[in-house]
Design brief:
The chain is built from 9 helices and 8 strands. With 324 residues, it is of the alpha/beta class. The radius of gyration is 20 Å and the shape is globular. The relative contact order is 0.18.
Length: 324
């Protein structure tokens, strides 16, 4: 482990000796923001599809000493029984890890033919009142079972669940997370999602370092980013940029995804071996990422384990109809 107080750049000593040193990072590019606990980064293992996969993740995280702040699921709340959700809630609560489940139904599992075209149509967004109602039903059911983080893939669903939270339909400490599949790609859209109720926002893994700096000039809302992205999100692997991603993007959730892996959604027993194998490997990828931070002297600034709330954020004002 390096003892330097300033993280070193990848390959810096060797390249410097060869006259190929990179310029030092500009201090003005750094994010001035942190999580409320003062941390600059947290960890997340995504695509944890059910209690059996969760057990594998927790066991492997213990074996490899991978600290976990959040575990998320992608198939949807409606794909889990009450007993399965309760088992996941209890396992995460025992270890003070946030559990995030995806609301549904979503457009790609709907009757809309446009989602099968090259354009993708409306993508994962909720089509019609019935899909919106399904997402709200999922949210109410999950929070009644103890879930306190909901993943959303539609702006209208986000705003509706934020209003539900504000009026007491959902618990006040429920957090809302924007899916990578509708993630904002510029500062204005990032700020709009924050104001619609987002407490953390996935951004596409192909955003440049400058893009992150631009976003941080307008919003302090926590950012989620795949350090290794699934193939359907580009398959990008950005481990050697970890220290700079944190410096530019804080407060940042480091998501340990997995490239070159089969799609899992919607998951089920017919995919059991793949679900468990990929869950195990995601934790290992997390260990690789954390080891790299240590080697570069950039491991400082992690939020304390058990931290989950985002701190004060900017919201649009809203007035509920009379009689509600």
């Amino acid at each position: 482990m390096t003892t330097s107080t300033t993280p070193r750049l990848p390959g810096e000593p060797a390249l410097g000796a060869l006259g190929l040193a990179a310029p030092r990072p500009e201090p003005a590019d750094a994010s001035p923001h942190t999580f409320p606990d003062g941390g600059r980064w947290r960890t997340e293992v995504p695509s944890c599809e059910g209690p059996e996969a969760l057990a594998v993740v927790l066991k492997e995280a213990g074996r490899l000493d991978v600290p976990l702040h959040r575990i998320s699921q992608g198939s949807g709340i409606w794909m889990l029984t009450d007993a399965e959700i309760t088992e996941m809630v209890e396992a995460c609560a025992e270890r003070d890890i946030e559990l995030c489940l995806f609301t549904g139904p979503r457009g790609t599992w709907d009757t809309g033919a446009a989602t099968r075209t090259d354009s993708g149509g409306a993508g994962l967004r909720a089509r019609g009142h019935s899909a919106l109602a399904g997402c709200v039903e999922d949210a109410v059911r999950a929070t009644e079972l103890g879930v306190r983080c909901l993943l959303v893939a539609d702006e209208g669903v986000l705003w509706t669940l934020h209003r539900a939270r504000a009026t007491g339909i959902l618990p006040a400490d429920t957090t809302l997370k924007v899916s990578a599949l509708i993630g904002p790609v510029n500062p204005a859209s990032y700020a709009v999602y924050e104001r619609l109720g987002a407490d953390s926002l996935n951004v596409p893994s192909d955003l440049t370092l400058d893009h992150l700096t631009e976003i941080r000039r307008v919003s302090a809302a926590p950012m989620d980013m795949y350090i290794e992205a699934p193939d359907d999100l580009g398959g990008y692997v950005r481990m050697y940029e970890l220290a700079e991603l944190i410096r530019r993007g804080a407060p940042l959730y480091l998501k340990f995804g997995l490239a070159k892996a089969p799609g899992l959604y919607p998951s089920g027993r017919h995919m059991r071996d793949t679900v468990l194998d990929t869950a195990r490997e995601r934790v290992r990828r997390g260990r690789l990422a954390l080891d790299l931070l240590v080697r570069h002297g950039a491991e400082g600034g992690m939020s304390p384990l058990g931290s989950r709330l985002p701190g004060p954020l900017h919201r649009f004002e809203h007035t509920e109809p009379e009689g509600n």
